[in-house]
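Quality-control log, excerpt.
Job 1 of 2 completed; input and output follow.
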Amino acid sequence: MTDTSRPITPTRVIPAGAPLPPRPPDPDEEPPWWHQRKTPAPPSPRAPAPAAPSDPPPPIQVHVTVDLTPVEEPPPPTRTQRAVDWVWDRCTDWRLISAVLAALAPWLAGTSPAGAWAATLHDARTEAGLLAAYLLAAAALGITWAINRRGRWAGRFAYVVAFVGAIGVLDLYDIVYLLTGVPR
């Protein structure tokens, strides 16, 4: 046990890179590393000896508790769970919810903006042709997807209108026409 009543005063400082001496220097002997310095350092003033306390300080008690039981970690989420979490995070955004409500609400002369876009694509299908209607729907989806990447409300509104309105260009017979080449 060390004596805690006396302060610790450093007696020597060995510079970095100097080899350690084989033995400590005698009280009146110069340390060998002092010869490496250009000018000797001035002697440091000694601190006055503290007054002897009347009562010794109480011993310091330290209690350390170590818990060695392993922590139960939850299993990592499955790929399906990660996909569901990703979709849920994207679908519960207030911008998306309000954009879907605004795109599907019938506030545009009794029809919704998505319904008006679907009717426009259906008219393009009957008048301009199948390929023109699909190209128009794909271009609208691509442009609104690029605008939606910023995450603003107007971009999400436009994307929902283009996505839901793209249903107006679809027809189940298109699969038969694509596979066989036989039109109606």
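Job 2 of 2 completed; input and output follow.
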Amino acid sequence: MRAVHPGARLVSAFGHAPGGPTTNMARVGHWRFIYEVPPRHKSARAVQGVYIDAVLGGAIGRPHPGRGAWLDNAPVRGPRLTPARAYDQLERAGHRGHAFQFVSLGNPLHPQLKQRYIFSNRRGGCDMFSVDDIDGKVHNLRKRGTSGR
């Protein structure tokens, strides 16, 4: 990505398990990585989004211009945890055996939310749990009154 777009910064990663919900994060093998690309010079247009699709252990696509999901996230710092380690944190918090089809990583612009992984069974959804990438804390997103941090 950076060879084509110097200065590109990762803002979101979306993965899914094509075979359906799983407890093995290695099966979350299809990923889309979304980057923000700053303008190269002062007269260039504003920051744009670019995405790359990749298959775990397989093909990595070419960069494509994109809009949307990157606008509500700051650049990802790190990440500190892999999806598998984030899932381990979820199990350590007592949520053993929960299978998920979708995993995402983002750093929301919202001041109360931290950089986090979200485990869900809805594409683009927040219907289950989040794991803070910074401190490893687990949040149940289905509990009433939970901030979803």
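Post-run check on job 2. The longest helix spans residues 83-92.
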